Amino acid sequence: MPPAPDPSRRRPSRPHPSRSRPRPWLSRLLPNTAPWRSSRDFRLTWTSGTITLLGSIFTMTAIPLQIADLTHSPLAVGTVGAVELVPTILFGLYGGVLADRADRRTVALATELALAALSALLLANALLGTPAVWPLYVAAGVAAALQGIQQPSIEAMIPRLVPHDQLVAAGALLSLRWSIGGVVGPAAAGLLIATAGVPAAYLVDLGSFLLSIALLARVRPVPSERDAEKPRLSEFTDGARYAARRPDLIGTYLADLAATVFALPTALFPFLAEDLDATWALGLLYSASAVGSLTAAATGGWTERVHRHGRLVVLSAALVGVATASAAFAPNLWTVLLCLAVAGGAHWIGDTFRSAIWNQSIPDELRGRAAGLEMLIGSAGPALGDLRAGGLAARQGIRAALRTGGLLCFGSAAVLSAAIPALWHYDQRTHPAEPATEAPTEPAAEPATEAPTEPAAEPPTEPAAKPTP
Fold it and tell me: How far apart are CA 165 and CA 159, in angstroms?
């Protein structure tokens, strides 16, 4: 008998082409889905938030349309923004304090239930023979207040749900959620309202809240590490004082304001469409930024390999300014849309790295109030930007308002890089990481999440992260 073949000398089989691993350059571009794979709670929270976002866009689209149909008054429609702004600011501050005192998942669940009840009331009003106008304003104001309470808790939950070394990837996935909503939501809402009417939009929103609540209820509790005392609004000043001692944090807030106050020309789009003799393309102008953001998010795998987060915050703000100023010189609609898309992608990059700095370095006991401060700035920036753009355009014209805003944004980024070196030199490898409670992972992923060489894996007896000198 011939001798048996030696297994050690057997030629390795060639993998089937369809089973080949992705090319390295492609895998480096695609978003890192490690937080989805390693954390069940993050998956549930991300999915719940995505469903809520898409459903809420249906109501955000329906309310102005219904007010316009009932009143035929542009002023009545514009008043909705004013009704929403004040509750967002006031309750956002309180929501930040509450997130540092209460169980963050409980706060998120309670506000989801209340928002679902509001959608049911809006649906009931829309089904009346003659819907009333005042419930629309009441619902808009109460919804803004509830979202102001909820958002700091949702944002403060994330560092407790994923390992420290996956926070950048988690932030990119959260930004991807907003990008998807910004592109898909308005188009789907407009199509549904045009075909089935306003009540159908409220019904979709109600259904989205019920599904979101079912998912969020499966997330483990995320209790505060502080004593469960009654929250006081005055505690918000603790978070403000902490931020004031961190020049790098102040720099991230200022960079965000520069991009939104100077280079977010949403209020100019109706007039820009007329200037381009393309009123039919108003929807394209509104969605261009979201398309750019979605493109950046879909190819944002590179962000986890960048360590100088502060530098990217500044450079992204500068790119927003350049793209916005370039739109002022664009000769046609398609060039304008390209510039707006580039600005949207740059906004996404800045948001991703700002989120990484906040989540990686702010102590858990202050994270809710820091999120409240972030929400305050995030609400004030676009409102002030609309006011600036509209006022300047009324005096100097649409193109001048675009050009001036973009140049001011670029100049502000240049000043920040020189005036706040702590932001420009911020490096996650050298900045002291906040030793938050270790994020739980699924059993199969636990060994992979341990990283003995990472600063975040130090024993939990270390003190909380100190402000950067």
Answer: 10
Other CB atoms within a 10 A radius of the CB of residue 332 amount to 10
The predicted model scores a pTM of: 0.70
- Per residue in 301-328, pLDDT (tens digit) is 888 888 899 999 999 999 999 999 999 9
* pLDDT digit string, tens, across residues 268-280: 887 888 888 887 8
CA distance 178 to 57: 11
How would you classify residue 197: left for phi > 0, otherwise alpha for psi between -120 and 50, otherwise beta? left
Q: What's the pLDDT at 429? A: 78
Q: Which amino acid is at 350?
A: G
Q: CA-to-CA distance for 356 and 76, rounded, in angstroms?
A: 39
Highest mean pLDDT among 18-27, 38-47, 172-181, 440-449: 38-47
**Mean pLDDT (whole number) for 38-47:** 95
CB 132 within 8 A of CB 124: no
pLDDT digits (tens, 9 = 90+) for 368-416: 888 888 877 887 788 788 778 888 888 888 899 999 999 999 999 999 9
Alpha carbon distance 210, 196 (integer Å): 21
Of the CA atoms within 13 Å of residue 276, those in its CB half-sphere come to 25
Strand, coil or helix: what is 373?
Answer: helix
- List the structure tokens of 251: 């720099």
Q: Give the residue from 175, 145, 174 showing the smallest Cα distance to 157.
A: 174
**Cβ pair 272, 398 in contact under 8 A:** yes
Q: What's the pLDDT band for 465 if we cut at 50, 70, 90?
A: very low
Residues composing the chain: 469
